[in-house]
Amino acid sequence: MPQISIIIINYNSLNHLKRLLKNLTPHPKIELIIIDNGEFKNQKRINIKKKLQRGFFIQNKKNLGFAAACNQGAELAKGRSLLFINPDCQIQTKDIFKLEKILFKHKKTAVAIPKIIKLPVGARSLLEPATPAKNGEKNREEFSCQERELEQKHAFAQKKDQITWFTGACFLIKSRIFKKLKGFDENFFMYFEDKDLSKRILKAGYTIKRNPKIKVIHFESQSRISWPKRKELYYKAQDYYNKKYFGLIYMLVFKFIRFPLYFKNVYLNKKTKLILTLLILSPLIILLELKLSLYFLSFILGLILLFFAFHNLEKTLILFIFLLPFLPALNLSSSIDMASARIFVILIFSLWLVKSLINKNLFIPINKTSLFIILFLLYCFLSIFFSSTPERGLRKTLVFLNFFPLYFIVFSMLKNQKKLLIKLLKALSLATGVLAGLSLIQFLSQFIFGHTFLINFYSEFLGKFFWGANTAQSVSENPSWFFNAGGLDLMRTFATLPDPHMLSYFLCFGLPIQIFFAIKSFKKLSQKQNKKEYPGFFLIIFLICLSLITEFLTFSRGGYLGFLGGLTAFAFFIFKQNKNQLKKLNQKIKKIKIALTILTLTALIALILIENPITDRLYSSFDLSEGSNLARLEIWQKSLNLFFKKPITGHGLGSYSFEIQPSADYRSPVNAHNIYLEFLTEIGLIGALLFLMILLSSFKTNLKIINLNKQKNGHLEWLSPVICFSLIWFFIHSFFEQPMYSPVILPLLVIFISLTSWLDFRYKKNNN
Q1: For the chain, does the N or the C end have fewer beta carbons within 10 angstroms?
Q2: Would you say 356 and 412 are in contact if contact means Cβ atoms under 8 Å apart?
Q3: What dihedral angle (degrees, nearest 10) is formed by the CA atoms of 748, 339, 475, 274?
């Protein structure tokens, strides 16, 4: 009686099948079952039956598909466990028994899998890099997301042996469980059958174990099915999977979004693709041929900004806020990049200081927030002296000293130019809309140009322009650009920012401001009923929808949680502050508002209750067994251990990466993925509390204004709830990421804190 049944599904992979059978040492406890789905035109394929001395060899009259053939082999199997393995894989017999030992170690374990090492056609050694596919075909890794995500998860958590799904290339499953679940779903002809089985195994209460020490070599794409045919089969399976688990509506929407990719891979021939690509890329090719220097472009931009700054400081500040996510970076040396936003702020601060001294109207706000900012900056500077890496500490302190002056600049300008506020907010709202539009273009571009082109385009061109050469290299080596949705690897939205999380942080400030203008415009419509107001109202609604879609496509779990927390608080504040005014609305406007509220709530409830990739991403935030969460918890544990060594003073600003990984350089992406933990480890309890007091002081000030409801000058009564929306969103998101050294996010945080202080100053002045 065999102990293990090895089931191999063959389709025109004779040479690999022979090599697999040759490497499998005969063993009395192992039986072989080979199912041939080929077309039998090659007589040599049939001769393999003569070499098979143990097990079964079944030749199907037609290609039944992978799932159906696997079930066919399982019906013949007599072993207590079934090893499904592709003919283009290589495994040692001893490793099969190691897998079985893992499989039967626990009663609830249903599947045991090895670590799969993928090799391209013609690879000679495991140490050689993967080569591009021949004849212009794309690498199968571009759409074989199951295997890639599996490797990504365990790159962060090597100690974790329990996972949520597996690839069908090689896995060992208990025979009784496979038959209990009725095997593979035969509606999947090829692809997604493994992901579907994984989902059903977990739903039935079983677990999947993985041992990374057991390695299997996989030579990808050996079935000899043409590229368009394979892609067509992949998309068909994807549609069925999405319909099965996410519903018909989601499947149709996803199919619509994916259509450009489907059309390109299935229908377009190579000549047509080449012509379309040349037409689309021709402007870029011309620019590259002209060899325009990025330094020259930056220099010209600097002259233009200097001209505006000298003539009108307020317009310069407005322009700065609008251009903030689009400003280029300067590569000062082989190891130093500088965001031009820093130069912009230094320029504005210098001109503001000189003009204020000349006009004798220099004003420094004296309040709790100002005190906490000054103490925080002073403490960061002092921490350099007991830092293990004083150079890094100095560079990070200079970042703070560079951007925190915006607090005093914005406050002073608003004090002297009250009409400047709306212009600043409009600039931010419009910049958010443009950034969201570019993000959607970037997201859709992956279906036209493919991931490889976009990765190279950002790493070699756009990344160097917006982030600097060193930062672009660091980001491209450690990207967080991809997310698996419905079995498809998607490039998340990030536009001109280095990663999706920073885009989510930008939306955290821009989206609430767009909502502020929507409320302001709606209020005008309800009071005047002027038809000229409708274009502006619908434009801001369009920008809000654009920003919301972009936020969803960042797939940033911290951003999702922050958005939900901020939105909940915002709705509460709005109702509390304006409940008396809501009663005075006429019936028509009241009905419209009720309808919009019901529609919004219905959409949110549907989004939460109906299973989809966005809610899956949100729910996975609370799954402590999920790979990235487990890795983040491990990072937080290391941060806490580091904090307890020096809880009061910390290890010095900029020392976190050195203490965790001494070999890491300044731009290495080694951080705590948590602002508060990183500050605790670097500047200790005192410094972290000072930073928290800056945020809490601003939040408390806005809360006081909301509670007293003393802002009687029209539209500004909605601003405090909006700022609270942003601060809560930022506060929650910061439990998962560290944006404090971003030259785009830090200025926005400082500006919002300054707006709070100005609102408080204005409120006190009006009541005196």
Answers
A1: C
A2: yes
A3: 100
Q: How far apart are CA 612 and CA 609, in angstroms?
A: 9
Residue among 345, 339, 510, 498 at smallest CA distance from 434: 510
| CA separation, residue 429 to residues 100, 542, 756 (Å) | 59, 12, 18
* HEC secondary structure over 541-554: HHHHHHHHHHHHHC
pLDDT for position 124? 40
Strands 56-59, 30-36: pairing is parallel
Cα–Cα distance measured from residue 626 to residue 618, given in angstroms and rounded to the nearest whole number: 12
For 364, other C-beta atoms within 10 Å of its C-beta total 11
Contact 481, 439 (CB under 8 A): no
What are φ and ψ of residue 388, in 5° steps?
-75, -15
∠220-224-226 over CA atoms, to 5°? 105
Are 496 and 340 a contacting pair, CB within 8 Å?
no
- Burial class (CB within 10 angstroms; exposed 0-12, middle 13-18, buried 19+) of 491: buried
Residue 27 CA to residue 92 CA, distance in Å, equals 12
Nearest to 439 by CA among 339, 553, 280, 341: 553
Q: Can you tell me the distance from the alpha carbon of 209 to that of 107, in angstroms, rounded to the nearest whole number?
A: 12
**Number of CB atoms found within 10 A of residue 123's CB:** 17
**DSSP H helices in 384-462:** 390-403, 406-416, 420-449, 451-457
Distance CA 80, CA 29 (A): 10
Structure tokens at 705: 């204004």
pLDDT at 84: 92
* Nearest partner of 194 among 113, 75, 315, judged by Cα: 113
**Residue in the block written with tokens 């529609």:** 599
**Bridge partners, 198 (sequence order):** none
Exposed/middle/buried for residue 254 (C-beta within 10 Å: 0-12, 13-18, 19+): buried
Q: Which residues lie closer than 8 Å to 117 by C-beta, 6 or more apart?
A: 126, 215, 216, 217, 218
**How many Å apart are CA 283 and CA 114, to the nearest integer?**
48
Name which of 378, 495, 364, 500 is nearest 438 in CA terms: 495
Q: Please, what are the averages of pLDDT over each run of 10 residues along the chain (768 residues)? A: 86 80 81 79 54 71 88 89 89 87 88 81 38 38 39 40 77 91 89 89 89 82 62 85 83 73 62 55 50 55 61 84 90 74 87 80 84 93 86 89 92 83 93 94 89 86 86 77 74 90 95 90 70 78 92 89 89 66 50 59 60 62 66 87 90 86 73 90 92 94 78 65 94 92 94 92 77
First to last CA, the chain: 94
Q: What secondary structure letter does DSSP report for 716?
A: G
Q: How far apart are CA 740 and CA 403, in angstroms?
A: 10
What 3-state DSSP class applies to 112?
strand
**Environment class of 266 (CB within 10 Å of its CB; exposed 0-12, middle 13-18, buried 19+):** middle
Helix (H, G, I), strand (E, B) or coil at 265: helix
> What pTM was estimated for this model as a whole?
0.64
Distances, alpha carbon 621 to alpha carbons 158, 185, 262, 531, 548, in Å = 20, 29, 31, 45, 20
Three-state DSSP at 752 gives helix
Residues in the chain: 768
Task: Supply the Cα-derived Rg of the chain in whole angstroms.
Answer: 30
